[in-house]
Amino acid sequence: MRTVVAIPPMPRMTGGIAVFYQIAARLRELGREVVLTGDADAPGLKEQADDGFAVLPWDAVWDAASGRKGAPFLRETDILFIAEGWPNMMAPALAAKARTLVYAQNWAYVFSALPEGASWDKLPATFLAVSHPVARFVEDMAKLPLAGVVRPAIDGSRFRPEPRDTAKTVRIAWMPRKNKALAEQIMQIAGAMDKGGKPRLEWVEIRNMTPGEVAQTLASCHIFLATGFPEGCPLPPLEAMASGCLVVGFSGFGGWDYMRQAEPGRYTPRIEPRPVPWTGNGLFAADGDVVEASFLLAHAVRLVRENAPEYAAIRGQALKTAAGYSAGAQREEVRAVWDALEKQRS
Question: At the top level of its lineage, which domain of life is listed (predicted)?
């Protein structure tokens, strides 16, 4: 059972594409046959070819499957693995009568990218979820077939805690690409609430950085302001946890795969969170609740300044959380899903 991983035609590398490559690596580690395909300039594809992956241009897959260039490349026993935001990429699988596995990395894209008049329940596709919340969305709300869950893996050798200096500033990392206007509102309100506070607040913008630069920046910050929504299994807050930051902000719904409230009485999601071996690892508001997020951020700043026991406890649980998202854990999730898919075929 061969897996053909279709990389979507994005202009630059994204966290979602990186997870596709992670899964391809896990499949190879498990001894399964993997082929990568995408446009010639698909982000990261050349590097994967240099790493020894079989790579086939997307035009060759589609042209062959549609009969325009001889025998189909895809076989009926293959799995075409695509992103949920690119449903048209399942066309070669339809032509070859192969299976399509759709990776739902963000619940908000499951329906939004479908062409007018199309419906997933009328298409021969099975879904793979990136998190427990997305799995609940796919299976319980969208009523679509679910193969299982495969979460992203965090590079613990890159994202790790370092000693922080609180003598001069309290450093707060944030990402402009994640709802910039709301992030700026929160920073303005929290800054006004903190007027005259010592040491002063320093806002650290994470933009146009390499993964190594992001890791260095997070390791130097005390707090990470998470403002992304909607999300499937947001990587930046998880990387911030691995780096020893106190995470404050929004979950994007998908973040509840790992996010747990550190203080009782705060917002909790409608879905029942999955059992995990960690407890409160951050301070979270409902998505878009700028006022609550501002209060939580001001509270987090106080915890950092006072070096409060709660601050150490939250960071400890955050590190425990990040450790649960290892390559080894991801490998076992991939093994379980692909073993089940193989049994379904036999």
Answer: Bacteria
